[in-house]
Specification:
The complex is a heterotrimer of chains A (493), B (144) and C (115). Chain A is mainly α and 493 residues long. Chain A is built from 20 helices and two strands. The chains are: A mainly alpha (493), B mainly alpha (144), C mainly alpha (115).
């Protein structure tokens, strides 16, 4: 009886949990409910992933109004992959946040934190699962609005300004997106993505459609923080509570990438995007700029959270680089990197949260010699850093391997060279951490530090472990990604 | 809080009608312009009006903060509950057709409860926003 | 001629650009939010205006009328308005908190305090 309703329950369970927390108003209960909702979402996502593994497409008619008139929830191999990613990261983060958030958020606001957390999760899952363009916008705003609140809960007063800046930029992005959707609706008369994909070829070359493509690209790229639209990201990541940073870095930008993929390949079809407009060249250029400029900026940061935030901007560049190839290998690389980077960055920010719990704001000058006092945490950060660089036997290597392959496939050997070169920049900032953590004598303040609590270490190391495991066993990740890539390139027709 | 007698008397006279109008907009939403969102805003406006004239503490006595916050959550729960009821009765989520033997009647019933949920949440949110902003003094310390 | 017949789009574009300009050009956090609201308003018009058919009636099926206006944009925009209200409320709440933390709502003065 439950099985046919899984696509909608995926979103409804966290959405139901949120108001319940507001009514009950207990921090502990809210955490339990948030955990239950996240675990349930993970279970549902895995079940959906298994059911679409053979290429089936699940369609769910909201309110029994058949698509394309009603809102359709549509699960295929592409978004099932994302659902698993988002819900598993959310589960790890919520377990972690019991200790971490209790230390960073006032007790009487705890239940509100988890309410926002559940809403954010519902929004992210909703964006991924829905097959309706306007519904997608609504979920985008649900997740964004709750994210602004979560960021503003950071202890530093700069969190408020960061949240405000993100609110302005995010709203502009979402509004651009909805303008694009509006233009598409005017031209096709439908909001259902699959239906839109079928009707678009008749009007594909018209100017409103090209304008819609431009609006959607800019809007979504603001949300996914493609260079140079990333200005909101470093501050938002740096000053948000640790758990929120990890959740955002691992899921929010990734879901936006999914939206971009969905529109580029499924709705517009690769031909419109990459032939009528020079999207491939634009994406390629911006991705390279992100990889080099953001990595360089990261090297000169003093705040570690900011450093890894800039590193996120750079890593998003790798993902969009994969998209710009418009080939199976390139897309596989992009999607796999989306998954891998989520694991790595999630792990890094969770571990940094442990350090932040002990020292406050994590800067290079107050963590000297931390490798001796917090060995487990420091070693985890090093492993994460190795994965960012792309050292073999970590996930980072797998995705960069596919990106280099795609570059060689398209005949651009210089691009393969650039990908490797940009990894060297990553070495530079990861080395800064290694140098500070292991080659400096612990000063008296550091010498008194204890290891991070187990309740935070275990979830963080789960992700570290995953980012090593999936570097060795690539059946699930590369397999899922290459199937998703093939489905995407086949388009919505 | 206003000491002006005219304002206080007029407010008392008007608030009853505002609440009545909110109910009218709520229940007439089936046949004409209206519905839960508008009704919720109008009902909240009545409370906010009362708060402006008689002061925030008086308004808090009529609708305590605790109740307001519960309203915010409860409305969403009613809405989502109607959706889940659709599943329980054998339809899809938010399926109103199965809520009654007659599908048209089911649609009426479904939208009625959904709009009721919307009204409760919207009224709650609007009052909550008013309480939060009005309760802050110039420099952040809570005002009595 | 086309200029006149497309006037709703011109108004849309004007609101869009004016709103975006205010967001970019003003340093006052409240004024930025005002600009953001104007910017969002342009979207309402973009959706609503094409929904109206000249001579069309409300979409209630009777035998007297054949031409109906499209009700869907109204529903969509009602949702968008709610989203806009929520964004504005949250933005204003943040500004209140920023004012308490920094004693200012001018962007340059806030940034000065952080150097």
């Amino acid at each position: 009886m439950i099985a046919p309703h899984l696509p909608v329950l995926q979103v409804v369970l966290p959405l139901l949990a949120a108001p319940l927390m507001v009514v009950v108003r207990r921090g502990g209960f809210a955490w339990l409910l948030a955990t239950a909702a996240s675990v349930a979402a993970l279970g549902i996502a895995l079940a959906l992933f298994a059911r679409v593994a053979d290429g089936a497409v699940l369609s769910y008619a909201m309110g029994s109004w058949p698509p394309p008139w009603g809102i359709e929830y549509r699960v295929d191999r592409v978004n099932a992959f994302l659902l698993v990613l988002v819900s598993s990261i959310a589960t790890v983060v919520v377990i972690y946040s019991r200790t971490s958030v209790a230390a960073e958020v006032p007790r009487e606001q705890l239940y509100l934190f988890y309410t926002m957390y559940a809403l954010c999760l519902a929004g992210l899952l909703g964006i991924t699962v829905t097959g309706d363009a306007f519904n997608l916008f609504v979920f985008l705003e649900i997740s964004s609005l709750s994210t602004y609140v979560l960021i503003a809960l950071g202890r530093d007063r700069r969190a408020l300004v960061a949240s405000y800046q993100y609110l302005i930029m995010g709203t502009i992005g979402a509004t651009f997106f909805v303008i694009g959707v509006g233009l598409l609706y005017l031209m096709t008369g439908t909001l259902n993505l699959a239906d839109m994909a079928q009707r678009l070829p008749q009007v594909a070359e018209s100017r409103p459609v090209l304008a819609a493509l431009a609006f959607i690209t800019v809007g979504v790229c603001l949300k996914l923080a493609l260079f140079p639209l990333h200005l909101w990201l470093p501050n938002a990541y740096a000053y948000a509570p640790s758990a929120v940073t990890a959740l955002l870095a691992a899921t929010a930008t990734k879901v936006s990438v999914y939206v971009l993929l969905r529109f580029y390949f499924f709705v517009f079809g690769g031909t419109t995007v990459f032939i009528a407009l020079p999207m491939a060249e634009i994406l390629l250029l911006l991705s390279l700029a992100a990889m080099f400029i953001a990595s360089t900026v990261a090297i000169f940061q003093d705040n570690l959270k900011r450093m890894f935030a800039y590193s996120s901007v750079a890593q998003i560049g790798y993902i969009t680089l994969g998209v710009s190839f418009d080939s199976v290998t390139g897309l596989t690389g992009g999607v796999v990197h989306l998954f891998n980077h989520a694991l790595t960055k999630g792990a890094l920010f969770l571990l940094l949260g442990g350090v932040a719990l002990r020292v406050g704001v994590v800067r290079f000058d107050n963590i000297g010699g931390i490798g001796r006092m917090m060995p487990v945490t420091a070693f985890g950060i090093v492993l994460g850093g190795l994965s960012l660089i792309g050292v073999p036997a970590t996930v980072g290597f797998v995705s960069k391997w596919y990106l280099v392959l795609a570059a060689l496939e398209s005949g651009a050997w210089w691009l393969a060279f650039l990908i490797v070169l940009s990894s060297l920049l990553t070495v530079a900032y990861v080395w800064r951490f290694v140098e500070a953590a292991y080659f400096r004598e612990p000063d008296p303040a550091v010498a008194r530090l204890k290891e991070a609590p187990l309740a935070m270490l275990v979830p963080a190391w789960l992700l570290v472990g995953a980012s090593v495991y999936f570097g060795l066993d690539t059946v699930l990740t590369v397999g899922g990604a290459s199937q998703a890539a093939q489905d995407l390139l086949r388009g919505g027709r | 809080m206003s000491g002006d007698l005219v304002l206080r008397v007029v407010a008392k006279l008007l608030i009853a009608f505002m609440l009545l109008f909110a109910l009218y907009v709520q229940f007439h939403g089936d046949f004409g312009p209206g519905g839960g969102f508008q009704a919720g805003v109008i009902a909240a406006a009545a409370i906010i009006f009362y708060g402006i004239i008689y002061g925030l503490p008086a308004a808090r006595k009529v609708v305590p903060s605790r109740v307001v916050e519960t309203m915010v959550g409860l409305g969403v729960l009613i809405y989502a509950g109607v959706g889940v009821l659709g599943i329980v009765l054998g339809g899809n989520y938010l399926d109103y057709f199965v809520l009654s033997g007659d599908p048209v009647n089911g649609q009426h019933r479904g939208i009625f409860w959904v709009e009721a949920g919307v009204a409760v949440t919207v009224a709650g949110v609007m009052i909550k926003i008013f309480y939060m902003f009005a309760g802050r003094g110039r420099n952040g310390e809570p005002e009595a | 001629m086309r200029f006149a017949s497309h006037y709703s789009y011109w108004i849309t574009m004007f609101l869009l650009i004016a709103g975006l300009y205010i967001v970019i050009a003003h340093g006052n956090l409240i004024k930025k939010l005002v600009g953001l609201s104007i910017f969002q308003t342009s979207v309402y018009l973009l959706y609503i205006a094409p929904g109206k058919l000249i001579g069309g009636t409300a979409p209630i099926v009777t035998e007297q009328f054949q031409v109906y206006s499209n009700p869907l944009p109204h529903v969509l925009i009602l949702t968008a308005i709610v989203v806009g209200v929520a964004t504005l409320a949250l933005g204003l709440a943040l500004v209140v908190r920023i004012r308490e933390a920094y004693g200012s709502i001018e962007e340059d003065e806030i940034l000065e305090q952080e150097v």
